[in-house]
Amino acid sequence: MWTIRAGLLVVATTATVAQLFEPPKKISNPCDSTKQLLHLKEQLLAKATTNGAQIQAALLKVAQLQAAAAAATGDEALMYAALAAGTGAKVSQAIEQSTDGVRRLASAAAASAQELAGVQTLLTDVAALSIKPMAAKQLSVSGPANGKHYIRFASTGATYTTCEPQESTPDNRQPDQNPDPANNVLDIFFLKGRGKAGPDATTALLCFHNTNTAACTAASANQNTYGELTTGKPLDLTKAQAKTPISGTQKFTITGGGTSNLLPPQKYVEARLATLAEGISAYAEMSFVADNLETPEMAVATEARLALLKALDPTEDVSKLSDKATEIDGQITKLYGKNGGEVKTRVWEKFKSIQIPKEATLDNKPTTLNKLDDLNKLWFVASFHKAKPIQETVARVHQKETEKNKNSGLNRKTRRKERRG
């Protein structure tokens, strides 16, 4: 029994990991095993895609909050801004985790599932190779031509279409009636030297006997008048099972198949299964969902509390966060309800209908915040509203200067008239 560990402890639910593996089915050959592995590969890559989509959706939510904060004033602006700080920190953590998780998912999909699936397909053909037979020859008379006989394969590549058919074929594998309740299972096939049991049990590959009618099934020691090369297969398939816990520490424990003289080598399979275990761990860990940003927990997150602390007193040291807990809790209740319990109705169901003037849009058309589903558009809205007070201040100063210059010109004209009079 071999054990390959990923070195990671994963708190995973049965449902989460079960989605990664296909439902247990009866596996009778390497082609069936290939289907298991390719399903696993597809699910690993799909997880990376869906995780990226969730992060993109979360970034849009944070950008919408920032735009809403910029467009609002007073307590309403603070309500959006503090929540943007809390959700932004959460998304930042998710991005960091995703970067590592996607790397592990991709490695598992390519270096493990895909490689092992390719090996299983190849084993199907190698296992089907048969030797081109040599009819019995009386060695003492003439023997093979020139005293030689070349061992040749009778066929190659005969079963490749079984694993890689030119046209789609139905999956005829039957459900496993007795699946392992504690583990997800992969069936891995190996090749080993021709054994003494199985379809070739009574037929030697090369034998000698004393009559050309006895054949290799009846040959015995010290009978070498006739020689014969049979059509038996030189290699046998043997099946092992790689099991990984449905939850807990991700590892593969392999039973069956033997521990030596295997093709592919034991260490080759061990290395890829260890990488695959890393990918399964990442699959279970990557559970970020954008809609979770709308929960009360985000309203009371540390980053949101820090934003409220600075709103209460911009000069306050962030280390005083715990000292101001009572005041901050009061602000949270005021803005989001007790413990953030009303954040859904006060913020998420309200802010999306905020009116955006045409001056704040890239296409110069008025809209509402919920219709802006592009980060560039949202950032432009936020920038416009943040710059608006500055623009208004500059405009007022310019107007005062214009009026001052205008009044100065009128005064000069008045004085000139008075002198002429």
Automatic annotation (TrEMBL):
Stretches for region Disordered: 161-182, 395-421
Assigned keywords, A-Z: Signal
Biased composition (Low complexity): 171-182
Origin: domain of life: Eukaryota
Biased composition (Basic residues): 412-421
Signal peptide: 1-18
SUPFAM superfamilies: Variant surface glycoprotein (N-terminal domain) (SSF58087)
Name recorded for this polypeptide: Variant surface glycoprotein
